[in-house]
Amino acid sequence: QVQLVESGGGLVQSGGSLRLSCAASGSIGSINSMVWYRQAPGKQRELVAAIASGGSTNYADSVKGRFSISFDNAKNTGYLQMNSLKPEDTAAYYCNANLISNAYLRAYWGQGTQVTVSS
Description:
With about 120 residues, the protein is mainly beta. Helices cover about 0% and strands about 60% of the residues. Strands 2, 4, 5, 6, 9, 10 and 11 form a 7-stranded mixed β-sheet that branches. The protein has a 4-stranded antiparallel β-sheet with strand order 1-3-8-7, with no helix packed on it. Strand 4 and strand 5 form a beta hairpin. The protein starts with a strand and ends with a strand.
């Protein structure tokens, strides 16, 4: 069984920072990529940031220059450092990992963590 557990969400004032974590556990062979998504009430889920096993990253235009994604291979944990937060960043944030478990490649989702940015 593979689990992804997010943490680090909370309430922060506009301009503040938060760091989200996504810890993968279980029978993991390798993690090919990790992606952070977010979903605000009444809106579609959107990609925020992604990182591949080689280290390449990709960001939504709305967070470029403010958010930074990283991954610690030793801990099987991904991070999303969020700086200069804005009220429009308020959403539930989910991590998604494409990984190999028991020789099968599939995607796993975390349960989500709420980020609320007050103006």
